[in-house]
Design a protein that fits this description.
alpha/beta; 10-stranded mixed β-sheet; binds 3-isopropylmalic acid; binds manganese (II) ion
Length: 365
């Protein structure tokens, strides 16, 4: 089959890791007889520097008409001035809104071979397998009013947290459906003891649970969830959370996997069903990592696994997705480690890691 893939590497380590996921994707062409037409575009800080905007309309349109988008990361110290009128991060926020990808799926899988690289006890992380479903196009990230104003008493800033019933219900639906396809446990995260948005969220989750008698629903306050993720992560199967809570909890959950560099994500505009094609947006969760950018040492696995999620959810290539995941398993099992998980031992470069996954594909396919 033939597919059009838009590749937006962005800033920092974004382009380096994305190059490896494209390398692995291209290897699939020969193995499975597909054709992936890759179209590249500028986003983030590079786009501000070149075109004077974090993302051009043309790139937004190109992304919207593709079968899927592979995204790296945006941002960096160069564009971090709090007084700047434009930020690289606006690229990702515009893209998410433009594509309507309200459901961000962030699986957290613990690789037994990397247990030594984790700061937590092996007994705590053993067998952890959870997924965070994060609402991605609403809440405090987007709601208005938002902004800064100067008053006679000094500056004042406002962000608004707002959620409609429709926005909450559609993300809860993704959570329930995903839980139904897994261990049938859904944890709904909120701050219902303080926030009105959360009280509506909790009410709607309870209401929707009537449609899913086979799924066990519990409600956990976000602060308590943060603690439980470290103390007893095994209790979680699927976690569903609003935009900001999901953002924070997924960085924390990355600790379970030893490194943020390993975690993929998929952003979708509908309930994911393996084999059904939904246009989507795929990015590793790690960000631009300016401290290691350009050194060729970043971990490309988060990007490669994001590409595998793309195969599964946007291209309907379930078998190919599983082959990529097996190839990653194989390379990690064989002891290859990028610097983030090498614990000071010998480290594999970004390009070598990508190359090894690509070669393992031949035997894993
Ligand atoms: C993420 C990132 C983004 C977010 C930033 C770069 C805007 O942290 O994808 O988790 O907060 O959503
Ligand atoms: Mn984040």
């Amino acid at each position: 089959m033939e597919f059009n893939i838009v590749v937006l590497g962005g800033d920092g380590i974004g382009p380096e890791v994305t190059e490896q996921s494209v390398k692995v994707l291209k290897t699939l062409e020969g193995l499975f007889g597909h054709r992936f037409n890759v179209h590249e575009g500028d986003v983030g800080g590079v786009s501000i520097d070149k075109h004077g905007t974090p993302v051009k309309d043309e790139v937004l349109d190109m992304a919207a008409s593709a079968d899927a988008v592979l995204f790296g990361a945006v941002g960096g110290p160069k564009w971090d001035d709090p007084a700047a009128t434009m930020r690289p991060e606006e690229a990702i926020l515009h893209l998410r809104a433009h594509l309507g990808v309200f459901a961000n799926i962030r699986p957290v899988k613990v690789y037994q071979w990397l247990a030594d690289s984790c700061v937590l006890k092996a007994s705590v992380i053993k067998d952890v397998d959870l997924v965070v479903v994060r609402e991605l196009t609403g809440g405090v990230y987007y709601a208005l009013p938002k902004g800064r104003t100067e008053t006679p008493q000094g500056w004042s800033a406002v962000d608004t947290m707002r959620y409609s019933e429709r926005e909450i219900n559609r993300i809860l639906r993704v959570g329930f459906e995903l839980a139904r396809s897994r261990q049938k446990k859904l944890t709904s995260v909120d701050k219902a003891n303080v926030l009105e948005c959360s009280r509506l969220w909790r009410h709607l989750a309870t209401q929707m649970s009537e449609d899913y008698p086979d799924v066990e629903l519990d409600h956990v306050l976000v602060d308590s969830c943060a603690m439980q993720l470290m103390q007893q992560p095994k209790r979680f199967d699927v976690i569903v959370a609003g935009n900001m809570f999901g953002d924070i909890l997924t960085d924390e959950a990355a600790v379970l996997a030893s490194s943020m560099g390993l975690l993929p994500s998929a952003s979708l505009s509908d309930v994911p069903v393996a084999g059904r094609r939904i246009p989507g947006f795929y990015e590793p969760i790690h960000g631009t990592a300016p401290d290691i950018a350009g050194k060729g040492i970043a971990n490309p696995i988060g990007a490669i696994l994001s590409m595998a999620m793309m195969l599964r959810y946007s291209l309907g290539l379930t078998e190919e997705a599983a082959a990529v995941e097996r190839a990653v398993d194989q390379v990690l099992e064989s002891g290859q480690r990028t610097a983030d998980v090498a614990g000071g031992g010998p480290a594999t470069s970004t390009a070598d890691m990508g190359g090894r996954v690509a070669s393992a594909l031949g035997s894993a396919a």
